[in-house]
Amino acid sequence: MTKRTLKDLSHHVSQCVECGLAESRTQVVFGSGNPNADYFFIGEGPGAKEDLEGEPFIGRSGKLLSRLIGEELKIDRSQCYIANVVKCRPPNNRNPKSIEISTCKPYLDEQIQLVNPVVIIPLGNFASRLLLNTKEGITNLRGERYSYKQHYLVPTFHPAAALRGNPDALKNMRLDFQLAYSIVSGNLK
Ligand code: SF4
């Protein structure tokens, strides 16, 4: 059987009603970016703006993410791939539930497999804990290089943490992005 493409998968997921988040979403926010990206970012879930426009990370967090990608990875964000742990907005921006995360995870895994990035960068607790299969928090997890399947994995803070005024978050995000850059540019393989 022919393997489905990212576009096929996106079309399939756009009609998904596998978990309760389908009831309150405006639309599925599948993910966006370069289908052959070296860097694959994973956030938590779509917010209100993303739910309306169908794109991940387009609010204030997205602006900060784009800026850090430009400054630390030396590329435009369109050259990365950006997705979320859950593809539909949790009502009132509540945390996604375990059952919603586990139901949606096969889509994330298939996205990763199809994009086949060098480095995965989970942003914040939800994405980092999911891929590292741990209950440990991002403050302790970040600053290290891990692996997920055949990919490197470099967890870091969610940009929202830096925007909330966590004084170390922005500084540590820069360090983690620099680690990811070193891996992709071949200095740390
Ligand atoms: S969050 Fe994921 S599993 Fe739930 S309805 Fe949306 S696409 Fe389907």
Describe the structure.
- The chain is α/β, with parallel strands linked by helices.
- Helix content is 43%, strand content 11%.
- Strands 1-3-2-4-6-5 form a 6-stranded mixed β-sheet, sandwiched between helices.
- α3 packs across α8.
- The protein starts with 5 loop residues before the first helix and ends in a 5-residue tail after the last helix.
- The site of iron/sulfur cluster has 14 residues, from α4.
Key features of this structure:
Uracil-DNA Glycosylase, subunit E; alpha/beta; 43% helix; 8 helices; 6 strands; binds iron/sulfur cluster; 189 residues
Rg, alpha carbons: 15 Å
Measured as a percent range, the helix fraction is 40-55%
Low-confidence stretches: none
Supply the CATH superfamily name: Uracil-DNA glycosylase-like domain
- In N-to-C order, the SSE pattern is HEEHHEHEHHEEHH
Number of contiguous helices = 8
**How many domains, in number, for the residues?**
1
The strand line-up of the biggest sheet is: 1-3-2-4-6-5
Instruction: Give the overall shape, derived from the CA principal axes.
Output: globular
Measured distance between first and last alpha carbons: 34 Å
List the SSEs and their pairings.
Blueprint: H1 6-13, E1 32-33, E2 39-43, H2 48-53, H3 60-73, E3 81-84, H4 98-115, E4 119-122, H5 125-132, H6 138-141, E5 146-148, E6 151-153, H7 159-163, H8 167-184
Parallel strand pairs: 2-3, 2-4, 4-6
Antiparallel strand pairs: 1-3, 5-6
Helix pairs in contact: 3-8
This protein binds iron/sulfur cluster.
